[in-house]
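Hey all, quick one. A colleague (J.T.) asked me to put the MV4 job into the tracker so the inputs and the structure tokens live in one place instead of scattered across chat threads. No bug as far as I know, just bookkeeping. Sequence used:
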Amino acid sequence: MISKILIANRGEIALRVLRACKELGIATVAVHSTADADAMHVRLADESVCIGPPPSRDSYLNIHQIVAACEITGADAVHPGYGFLSENAKFAEILEAHDITFIGPTAEHIRIMGDKITAKQTAQELGIPVVPGSDGEVKPENALEVARKIGFPVLIKATAGGGGRGMKVARSEADLEEAVATARTEALAAFGNDAVYMEKYLSKPRHIEIQIVGDGAGNAVHLGERDCSLQRRHQKVWEEANSPALNVDQRMKIGQVCADAMKKLKYRGAGTVEFLYENGEFYFIEMNTRLQVEHPITEAITGIDLVHEQIRVASGGGLSVRQEDIVFSGHAIECRINAEDPRTFVPSPGTITHFHAPGGLGVRVDSGAYQGYRIPPYYDSLIGKLIVHGRTRVECMMRLRRVLDEFVIDGIKTTLPLFQDLINNQDIANGDYDIHWLEKHLAATSE
Ligand code: MV4
């Protein structure tokens, strides 16, 4: 059905998708900017096309260039990876209009989930528990009435939001007017849309997300959860599956709620339903309609290749697994290795002078980096992901400690030392952390 896939991305995720294509006997086309001519994804693809200069908007975000690259190479499908055009409904539509398969959900589903109010209303209608809050958009003149009804503290969020921009807490009535005004100004600046809505503010939640895959014809499964609470400024740092906070019953219950919702929606492709989790309750916040950076920890505990499933359902082949066949085995942790200073998180592009990836049982390294590779300064600083699996969380942590000692990346600064710190921390060992833990820890240890 699909015989050649163009990968509209770069870095480790382009490699990740390439590997799945090769296993399925599908030809691959890499695209790259002039800054990425010597990147690993270009070397390993069957063909490659240069699509423009370094700035993303001129290359990896340039829809016309990507469609042209499909026409030139005869690619019949596009995998968007994550970021860039992966959640761009217009891109999905343009590809379909050119008879090119978009490996992802329908443009309509991307659009619904891209608008946070519509996403939340849809989730609620599908039976997913949501955070108590306003019924849709809140105008400044109604803010006080709505906030009193919800009860303080409240959180004002941008409809077009995501990533925490345009988000403001109002702890009491005195804070409200300013919080609403600031949220609207920030939302307008960031998204060109000043619409905001309001929610009950959860003060110490964990961020737990459920991985789902649907076939677009009414069948869907869940692959358990990932705990992504360890983050700094909305950038995830360390993710684990399963969540240290959940037991089997909780996992299967919330997972089934999400799978049933995706069946009703006739969702196609991989997706993630994001929740805040506090005091034993789940509260939907957003849905991502793409493969996520941290998908390998789910693959580690289920043995299911999520990119294979994406390609299968995109070509109408259906899911390879039934819910009852999915077995959750052991524990996995992902460390995001960024080319950044491990204390200040300032990007550190440059040439890698020495690179040695660890190996052994239960170890996976997804990275396009190699000795002599020059990290360009134009893109995000993720240069690799270290994924460690063990039969238990304790075994996984012991293995991670060994593996971190083995990993060598010289010539640039990386976040590896941060993980050396976390692996020796008692709260982390106990799984005792929430979404604010890492920022508090960094502040406390920088004095
Ligand atoms: C919240 C919240 C507390 N209460 N909603 C941040 C980004 C956006 N995706 C949702 N976010 C939050 N929504 C309510 N009602 C706290 C956050 C939040 C957060 C969520 C997930 C991961 C990290 C976070 C860091 C700060 C705030």
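Adding what we noticed when we looked at it: The two ends are 59 Å apart (CA to CA). The longest helix spans residues 173-191.
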